[in-house]
Amino acid sequence: MKSMRFFAWTLLILFIIIPVASAEETESEPFIPGEWLVTNAVMMPYALMDADSSADPVSALLGRDIVDPYLFWPSDKTVVNPAPGKTITFNAKNSTSLEFTPLPEAGQDYPFLAMAATYLDVDTWNEATIEVKGRAPFKLYLEAEEVLSRTSTADSDTAVESGDITLDQGRRRILLVSVLSGADSLANWLLELSITPTSPEDAVITATTDPRHRFDITDYYLQESIVGQDLSKDGAWYAVIRGIRNGQTDKTEKWLEVWSLKDKKRVWEYRNSKGIGSVQWSPDSKTLLITVSGKDKGTDLLRFDPATLTLCEMESSLEDAMGFTWSPDGQGIYYTLYEAFEEDDKPYKVMWDMPDRWTGFRDHMSLCYMGLDGNTHLKFSEGKYTPDQWVVSPDGSKILVISGVSRVERPFMVNNFWIIDTQTGEAEKVFTFEHSSTGHPVWSPDGKYVAFDAPMNPVLGNDSPYPDNNDNQTDLWILDLTTREAENKTRDFEPAVAMGAYGVGFGGTIIWHEDGTIGFTGLYNKHMRWYIYDPVKDVMTTHDLPTPGATSLVASTDKKSTIAVFRGQQVGQYGDMYWYDWKKKKSGMLFPLAEHMKQLITFDNKVTDYDVTYWDAVEKDSVTVPGFLFYPANYDPAKKYPVVTDFYGGVFGYAEGWMWMSQVFSTRDYFVYVPTPRGAAGWGQKFADSHPNDWGVRTTRDMNTGLRHIVDNVPGADGDRCAPVSGSYGGFMTMYMLSMDHSSPDYYPYATGISDYGISNLASYWGIGWWGYLYSDMATARTYPWTDPQYYIDHSPLFFADNVTAPLLLLHGDGDVNVPVGESDQMYTALKVLGKEVEFIRFPGEDHGMASTRAKYLTSKRIHIEWFDRFLKDRPEAWDSRMENEFQR
Questions:
Q1: Cα separation values, 845 from 210, 418, 812, 815, 816, Å
Q2: How far is CA 288 from CA 163, 228, 281, 502, 801, in A?
Q3: Which helix (H) or strand (E) holds 368?
Q4: DSSP 730
Q5: CA angle (158 as vertex; 153, 160 as ends), nearest 5
Q6: Residue 865: φ, ψ to 5°
Q7: Which of 712, 792, 799, 848 has a C-alpha 20 to 30 A away from that of 243?
């Protein structure tokens, strides 16, 4: 018995000791980068004007950013000019320690500067300890943020500065700046860096000197935007406002460029700290009107002459003015004047109408005219109708004004067309389009007609003879100002007129050329094309642009010019600016965009089998569901990868263009399925018209059919680790698909899901969302909560919350007026009561999209990644770190 007892105690002790010993044996080893970009050391000028000054040149130099850490990505042989006549060169070296030379001579007071950089490839998010060993002063950046520093020489060669860091998955950038003075009399200038992962300890880190990498979330700020643009009437000059968002300030830094399209060269560049607002060429194509405006600083008007490269001021600090456009004779400027409604001091507000819930509904806009000399200003429109859209006739005698008017019956908003005589001021309503969706009005050259885009049919009450259309599937209409009747000219035309899509953007264009033809952009089946319509011959001509995706298109209208400039795009590639002559059918690139980013990003995602491919699935209803499939960056057909379904947020699909977040998920080793289920505009009228009164049924069937095709046919796609993510209507879809009856043939057993600012209860959204009743006039056409309450219940995820078995993440801004935060509140409350796994993150003050700043917007995207890593990769560390200390009560 004693021997048995001794044996039992021995086993118990072993069971206690062994795990401890194992834990010690598996502690992470420090990672010491062995590949560095190292510069030579160079003496830096530092003038002390006061001999008694106690200033320290070493700490002073380290106290400032020698290079911009947000934009600086050195590579082998990169040369930097840190001071007058001084250069340092980065050279690739294989070494685990950094030795900078030459060493300052002993006793020499002048500071010497040296730099080093490396790039870490991190296989998974992890927390780590970072250490720098050595005596020399330094500053260390990780992804542009300072993480360690020492401003004076340490006492020992083994002195260590350490700190805790977070390393996100992907390629991370390390930059070290060191400054040393000969007064320190060091025998060498050596530093060594090491990183020890602490959670998880199995993180794998490698180092490289190559800055090129797949696009990741940290590269968001390297993208470029087209803020504004205009092409002169004769097609000779192109003006563009380009912008890049500053990673430190989160503000867009804008600059203006003027290009000669004859020479395809930039002739002028202009920057203004106040902020460039808009540009427009004069009717004679000789002068560019530039508006410069800043917050609470009014608007300055400038004129630029490209022939002489001269710039002059026309007007300064014009308050509450916007929408500037030339008069056709070039002698004046029209604009709109914003007039805020003066609220009284009553402690309550009596609602005037349903839209009185909207901010600014009581405010007013008036049309104004200013002489070219800037000395005269005329306000010439008044009344309760606000000019939502307006355009001046070619001869300047009339202005067409489109004004939206609220109603309490279908359609709940109509657009009235007014004609204002610029000589007499007489205003006359000439036409009403029975719908709120009309846009891009343009005059015919003879002033007898107006073209615009609008839905296929007007809405004529609950008993309308027309079918219920998706009002985003727009057609080309022409209003005859003599008969005051409008005709749909593209009723049997499948592309959506002047409509955009996710991926390419939403900028659409309609022009009426002086040769009598109408040009417009049209979206059909992932591609954006340029169409020329002859209204006299009733002939349509299709022009394939040099890239399948296009946005921000502007075109000339002079008889002698047929040129357009646009941003060309294709899936998996970042777009550039192109020109296209539709008469000669010639084209070319005008200039590249985001050149700095393109030097760093390896755009491997071409339309091939293993990068990104078209994925058009045939649904069981014999409907083709168009889509794209992004492959994991390090794709190996023998391995298994999770699948994220990233889909539309309403009635817009995905055309062939740059999809940055899909690229991010792909970089992080996810499959990304980007479908366009039925209901989206741009794939034909029948396809689009599946949206009204569907609310998830066919949309779910389409997406899940496409997903099953992927799981069944693509090696490595793990059907047990799939998840949907989207916002707004897409957020509704996530909740809808997770709350479906599991016995439904359309149900897919998703592992988890994310709903951004989604709708959980159709009835509450109908009445509380600012535009709920207007959107529902299409989405639940002719169906109201009191006429068919069961419909609203059957299509609302809230009423089927007990079906949810997958973990759900809800994100919502509590200032959202489009889809009020109460929609997520209701679903969160229901799931909590039911004991389901749900998390709800609210963004205080944020409206629809949670994007008042890019920093907040990107935070929401990082949360997406962390949630999916937790549930689809069994990597909860990043999520757990974010949630640490959150639940305090």
A1: 41, 38, 10, 5, 8
A2: 54, 13, 4, 32, 58
A3: strand 364-371
A4: H
A5: 70
A6: -60, -45
A7: 848
Percent above pLDDT 90 for the chain: 84
For the full predicted model, state whether its pTM sits above 0.70: yes
The CA angle 476-480-481, to the nearest 5 degrees, is 130
Q: Which residues pair with 180 in a beta bridge?
A: 112
Strand 612-614 and strand 190-199: pairing?
unpaired
DSSP letters for 601-640: B-----BSTTSEEE--EEPTTS-EE-EEEEPPTT--TTS-
Cα separations (Å) of 554 from 35, 280, 288, 290?
48, 11, 15, 17
pLDDT value at residue 604:
58
Helices (H), 420-507: none
The angle, 0 to 180 degrees and rounded to 10, between the axes of the packed helices 697-713 and 729-738 is 70
> Which residues, in sequence order, are CB contacts of 664 under 8 Å at separation 6+?
215, 216, 217, 861, 865
d(CA 57, CA 61): 6
The 3-class SS string of 762-805 reads: HHHHHHHCCCHHHHHHHHCCCCCCCCCHHHHHHCCHHHHHHHCC
Longest dimension (CA), the chain: 117
Structure tokens at 327: 């008069």
Please state, in angstroms and as integers, the Cα–Cα distance from residue 649 to each residue in 278, 609, 701, 757, 811, following that order: 29, 27, 16, 10, 14
Q: What tens digit of pLDDT does each residue of 342-386 get?
A: 988 999 999 999 999 999 999 999 999 999 876 788 998 887 778
Retrieve residue 557's tokens.
Answer: 């209208």
SS3 of 159, please? Answer: coil
Q: What is the pLDDT of residues 697-709, one digit of tens each?
A: 999 999 999 999 9
